[in-house]
Protein backbone atom coordinates (compact mmCIF):
# COMPACT_ATOMS: atom_id res chain seq x y z
CA UNK A 1 0.00 0.00 0.00
CA UNK A 2 1.20 3.53 -0.72
CA UNK A 3 1.17 6.23 1.98
CA UNK A 4 -2.17 7.59 0.78
CA UNK A 5 -4.00 4.32 0.08
CA UNK A 6 -6.85 3.43 2.42
CA UNK A 7 -8.90 0.31 2.98
CA UNK A 8 -12.52 0.73 4.02
CA UNK A 9 -14.78 -2.26 4.66
CA UNK A 10 -12.45 -4.45 2.63
CA UNK A 11 -12.43 -2.12 -0.39
CA UNK A 12 -9.15 -0.62 -1.52
CA UNK A 13 -9.00 3.06 -2.39
CA UNK A 14 -5.79 4.36 -4.01
CA UNK A 15 -6.27 7.64 -2.12
CA UNK A 16 -8.65 8.97 0.56
CA UNK A 17 -10.84 11.07 -1.75
CA UNK A 18 -14.10 10.08 -3.39
CA UNK A 19 -16.87 11.71 -5.32
CA UNK A 20 -19.81 12.70 -3.08
CA UNK A 21 -23.29 11.54 -4.09
CA UNK A 22 -25.27 13.99 -6.19
CA UNK A 23 -22.50 15.60 -8.23
CA UNK A 24 -21.72 14.16 -11.72
CA UNK A 25 -23.12 10.85 -10.52
CA UNK A 26 -25.99 10.39 -12.96
CA UNK A 27 -24.03 8.95 -15.89
CA UNK A 28 -21.30 6.37 -16.44
CA UNK A 29 -19.30 8.78 -18.56
CA UNK A 30 -19.21 11.57 -15.96
CA UNK A 31 -18.27 8.99 -13.31
CA UNK A 32 -15.42 7.94 -15.61
CA UNK A 33 -14.26 11.57 -15.84
CA UNK A 34 -14.18 11.78 -12.05
CA UNK A 35 -12.09 8.61 -11.79
CA UNK A 36 -9.75 9.91 -14.52
CA UNK A 37 -9.40 13.14 -12.50
CA UNK A 38 -7.90 11.15 -9.64
CA UNK A 39 -10.76 10.36 -7.24
CA UNK A 40 -10.06 7.25 -5.18
CA UNK A 41 -13.71 6.17 -5.39
CA UNK A 42 -17.03 7.23 -6.85
CA UNK A 43 -20.55 7.51 -5.45
CA UNK A 44 -23.53 7.66 -7.81
CA UNK A 45 -26.52 10.00 -7.59
CA UNK A 46 -29.10 8.48 -5.23
CA UNK A 47 -31.18 5.89 -7.08
CA UNK A 48 -34.61 4.59 -6.16
CA UNK A 49 -36.87 1.77 -7.23
CA UNK A 50 -38.71 3.96 -9.76
CA UNK A 51 -37.66 6.94 -11.93
CA UNK A 52 -38.25 10.41 -10.43
CA UNK A 53 -38.43 13.71 -12.29
CA UNK A 54 -37.28 15.86 -9.39
CA UNK A 55 -38.63 19.30 -8.51
CA UNK A 56 -39.26 22.15 -10.93
CA UNK A 57 -36.71 24.96 -11.34
CA UNK A 58 -35.11 26.74 -9.62
CA UNK A 59 -33.44 23.74 -7.98
CA UNK A 60 -30.03 25.25 -7.16
CA UNK A 61 -29.01 28.63 -5.73
CA UNK A 62 -25.38 29.69 -5.60
CA UNK A 63 -24.63 31.44 -2.29
CA UNK A 64 -21.54 33.19 -0.93
CA UNK A 65 -20.00 30.09 0.63
CA UNK A 66 -21.86 27.19 -0.83
CA UNK A 67 -24.74 25.84 -2.85
CA UNK A 68 -28.34 25.52 -1.77
CA UNK A 69 -30.20 22.75 -3.61
CA UNK A 70 -33.55 21.04 -3.71
CA UNK A 71 -33.14 18.84 -6.78
CA UNK A 72 -35.90 16.55 -5.57
CA UNK A 73 -34.07 13.24 -6.04
CA UNK A 74 -34.19 13.14 -9.83
CA UNK A 75 -32.97 9.74 -11.04
CA UNK A 76 -33.76 7.19 -13.75
CA UNK A 77 -34.45 4.35 -11.29
CA UNK A 78 -32.10 1.54 -10.35
CA UNK A 79 -32.90 -0.79 -13.28
CA UNK A 80 -32.38 1.89 -15.90
CA UNK A 81 -29.05 2.85 -14.28
CA UNK A 82 -27.60 -0.55 -15.30
CA UNK A 83 -26.72 0.95 -18.70
CA UNK A 84 -24.74 3.73 -17.00
CA UNK A 85 -22.90 1.27 -14.74
CA UNK A 86 -21.63 -0.53 -17.85
CA UNK A 87 -19.86 2.71 -18.81
CA UNK A 88 -18.72 3.58 -15.28
CA UNK A 89 -15.07 3.13 -14.29
CA UNK A 90 -13.94 -0.23 -12.95
CA UNK A 91 -10.55 0.98 -11.71
CA UNK A 92 -12.01 2.49 -8.50
CA UNK A 93 -14.62 1.22 -6.03
CA UNK A 94 -18.13 1.95 -7.31
CA UNK A 95 -20.46 2.97 -4.51
CA UNK A 96 -24.13 3.14 -5.44
CA UNK A 97 -26.23 5.58 -3.42
CA UNK A 98 -29.77 4.40 -2.72
CA UNK A 99 -32.97 6.11 -1.64
CA UNK A 100 -36.11 4.31 -0.47
CA UNK A 101 -39.09 4.79 1.83
CA UNK A 102 -38.94 1.65 3.98
CA UNK A 103 -36.56 -1.09 5.14
CA UNK A 104 -38.16 -3.55 2.67
CA UNK A 105 -37.80 -1.12 -0.23
CA UNK A 106 -34.15 -0.43 0.66
CA UNK A 107 -33.48 -4.18 0.69
CA UNK A 108 -35.09 -4.60 -2.73
CA UNK A 109 -33.24 -1.69 -4.36
CA UNK A 110 -30.04 -2.94 -2.74
CA UNK A 111 -30.37 -6.36 -4.40
CA UNK A 112 -30.91 -4.63 -7.73
CA UNK A 113 -27.84 -2.42 -7.14
CA UNK A 114 -25.71 -5.53 -6.63
CA UNK A 115 -27.01 -6.90 -9.92
CA UNK A 116 -25.90 -3.80 -11.83
CA UNK A 117 -22.37 -3.98 -10.40
CA UNK A 118 -22.18 -1.98 -7.16
CA UNK A 119 -19.07 -2.64 -5.04
CA UNK A 120 -20.70 -1.02 -2.00
CA UNK A 121 -23.92 0.81 -1.16
CA UNK A 122 -24.46 4.17 0.48
CA UNK A 123 -27.94 4.33 2.01
CA UNK A 124 -29.32 7.87 1.77
CA UNK A 125 -31.37 8.36 4.92
CA UNK A 126 -30.56 12.05 5.04
CA UNK A 127 -31.92 14.12 2.12
CA UNK A 128 -33.28 17.18 3.97
CA UNK A 129 -36.22 17.95 1.68
CA UNK A 130 -38.09 14.82 0.59
CA UNK A 131 -41.54 13.71 1.75
CA UNK A 132 -41.42 10.30 3.49
CA UNK A 133 -37.83 9.73 2.35
CA UNK A 134 -34.32 10.76 3.41
CA UNK A 135 -34.08 12.60 6.72
CA UNK A 136 -37.82 12.21 7.34
CA UNK A 137 -37.10 8.57 8.10
CA UNK A 138 -33.37 8.83 8.79
CA UNK A 139 -33.66 11.11 11.81
CA UNK A 140 -35.19 8.23 13.79
CA UNK A 141 -32.44 5.90 15.15
CA UNK A 142 -34.84 2.94 15.32
CA UNK A 143 -35.79 3.35 11.68
CA UNK A 144 -32.11 3.67 10.69
CA UNK A 145 -31.47 0.43 12.53
CA UNK A 146 -34.33 -1.36 10.74
CA UNK A 147 -33.23 -0.09 7.33
CA UNK A 148 -29.61 -1.15 7.84
CA UNK A 149 -30.54 -4.54 9.32
CA UNK A 150 -32.94 -5.41 6.50
CA UNK A 151 -30.54 -4.23 3.78
CA UNK A 152 -27.54 -5.92 5.36
CA UNK A 153 -29.47 -9.21 5.45
CA UNK A 154 -30.25 -8.99 1.73
CA UNK A 155 -26.79 -8.27 0.21
CA UNK A 156 -23.19 -9.28 0.85
CA UNK A 157 -21.42 -6.08 -0.24
CA UNK A 158 -20.44 -3.34 2.28
CA UNK A 159 -23.10 -0.90 3.40
CA UNK A 160 -22.37 2.73 4.20
CA UNK A 161 -25.06 4.94 5.74
CA UNK A 162 -25.19 8.66 4.94
CA UNK A 163 -26.42 10.57 7.97
CA UNK A 164 -28.30 13.82 8.41
CA UNK A 165 -26.83 16.68 10.46
CA UNK A 166 -30.35 18.05 10.97
CA UNK A 167 -30.80 16.35 14.35
CA UNK A 168 -29.78 17.06 17.93
CA UNK A 169 -27.47 14.04 18.16
CA UNK A 170 -25.93 12.65 14.96
CA UNK A 171 -23.74 10.24 16.95
CA UNK A 172 -26.89 8.46 18.11
CA UNK A 173 -27.76 7.78 14.46
CA UNK A 174 -24.23 6.53 13.75
CA UNK A 175 -24.46 4.23 16.76
CA UNK A 176 -27.81 2.85 15.52
CA UNK A 177 -26.30 2.20 12.08
CA UNK A 178 -23.27 0.46 13.60
CA UNK A 179 -25.41 -1.73 15.88
CA UNK A 180 -27.42 -2.87 12.86
CA UNK A 181 -24.27 -3.91 11.00
CA UNK A 182 -23.33 -0.90 8.85
CA UNK A 183 -19.76 -1.09 7.53
CA UNK A 184 -19.21 2.70 7.57
CA UNK A 185 -21.09 5.96 7.94
CA UNK A 186 -20.90 9.05 5.75
CA UNK A 187 -21.20 12.39 7.56
CA UNK A 188 -22.83 14.64 6.49
CA UNK A 189 -25.61 15.20 3.97
CA UNK A 190 -26.66 18.82 3.39
CA UNK A 191 -27.88 21.17 6.10
CA UNK A 192 -31.56 22.17 5.84
CA UNK A 193 -31.61 25.78 4.66
CA UNK A 194 -33.46 28.46 2.70
CA UNK A 195 -32.93 31.63 0.66
CA UNK A 196 -35.41 34.43 -0.11
CA UNK A 197 -35.49 36.71 -3.14
CA UNK A 198 -35.84 40.06 -1.34
CA UNK A 199 -37.21 41.99 -4.34
CA UNK A 200 -39.92 39.46 -5.06
CA UNK A 201 -40.39 38.46 -1.41
CA UNK A 202 -40.50 34.75 -2.30
CA UNK A 203 -38.37 31.72 -1.48
CA UNK A 204 -35.94 31.20 -4.38
CA UNK A 205 -36.14 27.41 -4.59
CA UNK A 206 -39.33 26.03 -6.10
CA UNK A 207 -39.42 23.62 -3.14
CA UNK A 208 -38.84 26.60 -0.82
CA UNK A 209 -36.58 24.57 1.51
CA UNK A 210 -33.37 22.87 0.43
CA UNK A 211 -29.99 21.60 1.57
CA UNK A 212 -26.84 23.70 1.98
CA UNK A 213 -23.46 22.28 0.93
CA UNK A 214 -19.93 23.62 0.47
CA UNK A 215 -17.52 25.60 2.70
CA UNK A 216 -20.38 27.12 4.74
CA UNK A 217 -21.13 23.73 6.31
CA UNK A 218 -17.56 22.47 6.82
CA UNK A 219 -17.38 23.34 10.56
CA UNK A 220 -20.71 21.58 11.11
CA UNK A 221 -19.47 18.50 9.28
CA UNK A 222 -16.16 18.49 11.20
CA UNK A 223 -18.07 18.64 14.51
CA UNK A 224 -20.32 15.77 13.39
CA UNK A 225 -17.35 13.58 12.36
CA UNK A 226 -15.61 14.37 15.66
CA UNK A 227 -18.68 13.37 17.70
CA UNK A 228 -19.29 10.20 15.69
CA UNK A 229 -15.63 9.14 16.07
CA UNK A 230 -16.06 9.25 19.84
CA UNK A 231 -19.10 6.95 19.59
CA UNK A 232 -18.48 4.26 16.95
CA UNK A 233 -15.69 1.95 15.78
CA UNK A 234 -16.70 1.69 12.11
CA UNK A 235 -14.99 3.98 9.56
CA UNK A 236 -16.38 7.45 8.85
CA UNK A 237 -16.44 9.08 5.42
CA UNK A 238 -16.23 12.85 5.91
CA UNK A 239 -18.34 15.01 3.61
CA UNK A 240 -19.20 18.71 3.65
CA UNK A 241 -17.16 21.57 2.25
CA UNK A 242 -13.90 19.80 1.37
CA UNK A 243 -12.13 21.91 -1.24
CA UNK A 244 -8.46 21.78 -0.29
CA UNK A 245 -5.90 19.33 1.13
CA UNK A 246 -6.03 21.08 4.50
CA UNK A 247 -9.81 20.62 4.65
CA UNK A 248 -9.25 16.91 4.02
CA UNK A 249 -6.58 16.69 6.73
CA UNK A 250 -8.96 18.42 9.17
CA UNK A 251 -11.68 15.83 8.45
CA UNK A 252 -9.20 12.95 8.83
CA UNK A 253 -7.85 14.29 12.11
CA UNK A 254 -11.46 14.66 13.31
CA UNK A 255 -11.93 10.94 12.62
CA UNK A 256 -12.69 10.40 8.94
CA UNK A 257 -10.92 7.58 7.08
CA UNK A 258 -11.59 9.30 3.76
CA UNK A 259 -13.36 12.38 2.43
CA UNK A 260 -16.01 12.92 -0.21
CA UNK A 261 -15.94 15.93 -2.52
CA UNK A 262 -18.99 17.38 -4.28
CA UNK A 263 -19.65 21.11 -4.28
CA UNK A 264 -15.96 21.97 -4.79
CA UNK A 265 -16.19 20.42 -8.26
CA UNK A 266 -18.54 23.29 -9.19
CA UNK A 267 -16.17 25.95 -7.86
CA UNK A 268 -12.71 24.42 -8.53
CA UNK A 269 -13.33 21.92 -11.33
CA UNK A 270 -12.27 18.28 -11.36
CA UNK A 271 -8.64 19.25 -10.66
CA UNK A 272 -9.72 19.47 -7.02
CA UNK A 273 -9.14 15.70 -6.62
CA UNK A 274 -5.45 15.81 -7.71
CA UNK A 275 -4.85 19.03 -5.76
CA UNK A 276 -6.25 17.51 -2.55
CA UNK A 277 -4.36 14.22 -2.99
CA UNK A 278 -1.03 15.92 -3.80
CA UNK A 279 -1.48 18.24 -0.82
CA UNK A 280 -2.08 15.28 1.50
CA UNK A 281 1.06 13.56 0.15
CA UNK A 282 3.18 16.67 0.76
CA UNK A 283 1.73 17.04 4.27
CA UNK A 284 2.65 13.42 5.11
CA UNK A 285 6.19 13.98 3.79
CA UNK A 286 6.60 17.22 5.74
CA UNK A 287 5.38 15.59 8.95
CA UNK A 288 7.38 12.39 8.26
CA UNK A 289 4.27 10.24 8.54
CA UNK A 290 4.32 6.99 6.56
CA UNK A 291 0.56 6.47 6.13
CA UNK A 292 -2.51 8.67 6.05
CA UNK A 293 -4.15 6.09 8.32
CA UNK A 294 -1.98 7.36 11.19
CA UNK A 295 -3.79 10.70 11.00
CA UNK A 296 -7.29 9.29 11.50
CA UNK A 297 -8.76 10.75 14.68
CA UNK A 298 -5.46 12.31 15.75
CA UNK A 299 -7.17 15.42 17.12
CA UNK A 300 -8.87 13.34 19.82
CA UNK A 301 -5.64 13.05 21.82
CA UNK A 302 -6.06 16.52 23.28
O1 LIG B 1 -31.74 15.28 -4.90
C1 LIG B 1 -31.72 16.07 -3.95
O2 LIG B 1 -32.47 17.07 -3.91
C2 LIG B 1 -30.82 15.89 -2.80
C3 LIG B 1 -30.55 14.67 -2.19
BR1 LIG B 1 -31.24 13.06 -2.84
C4 LIG B 1 -29.76 14.61 -1.02
O3 LIG B 1 -29.51 13.57 -0.41
N1 LIG B 1 -29.26 15.80 -0.55
C5 LIG B 1 -29.50 16.97 -1.15
O4 LIG B 1 -29.03 18.02 -0.67
N2 LIG B 1 -30.27 17.02 -2.29
Model description:
By secondary structure, the chain is α/β, with parallel strands linked by helices. It has 10 helices and 16 strands. The strands form 4 sheets. It has an 8-stranded parallel sheet with strand order 3-16-15-10-9-8-7-4. A 4-stranded antiparallel sheet has the order 5-6-14-11, with no helix packed on it. It has a two-stranded antiparallel ribbon with strand order 1-2. Helix 3 (103-115) packs parallel to helix 5 and helix 5 (141-154) packs parallel to helix 6. The longest helix has 16 residues, at 271-286. The radius of gyration is 18 Å and the shape is globular. Bound molecules: ligand RRO.
In short:
By secondary structure, the protein is an alpha/beta fold. The chain is built from 10 helices and 16 strands.
Produce the secondary structure layout.
Elements: E1 6-8, E2 11-13, E3 17-19, H1 28-36, E4 42-43, E5 60-63, E6 66-69, H2 82-87, E7 94-98, H3 103-115, E8 120-124, H4 135-138, H5 141-154, E9 159-162, H6 170-179, E10 184-187, E11 191-194, E12 196-197, E13 202-203, E14 209-213, H7 218-229, E15 236-239, H8 245-254, E16 258-261, H9 263-268, H10 271-286
Helix pairs in contact: 3-5, 5-6, 6-7, 7-8, 8-10
Number of strands: 16
Shape: globular
Q: Compute the average pLDDT.
A: 97
State the end-to-end CA separation: 29 Å
Give the bound compounds.
Answer: ligand RRO
Tell me the structural class: alpha/beta
Number of helices: 10
Radius of gyration: 18 Å
Give the strand content: 15-25%
Residues in helices, as a percent range: 25-40%
Give start-end ranges of low-pLDDT stretches: none
H and E order = EEEHEEEHEHEHHEHEEEEEHEHEHH
Main sheet overview: 8 strands, parallel
Major β-sheet strand ordering: 3-16-15-10-9-8-7-4
Amino acid sequence: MTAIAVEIAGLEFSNPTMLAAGMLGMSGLTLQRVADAGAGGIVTKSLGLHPRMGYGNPTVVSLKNGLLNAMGLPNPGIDEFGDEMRQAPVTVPRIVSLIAASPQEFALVARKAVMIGADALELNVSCPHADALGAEIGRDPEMVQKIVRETKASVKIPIFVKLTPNVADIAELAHAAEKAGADAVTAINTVKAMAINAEAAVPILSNKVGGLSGPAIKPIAIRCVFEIFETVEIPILGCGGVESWSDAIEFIQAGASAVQIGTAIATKGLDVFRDVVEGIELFLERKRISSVNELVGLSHRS
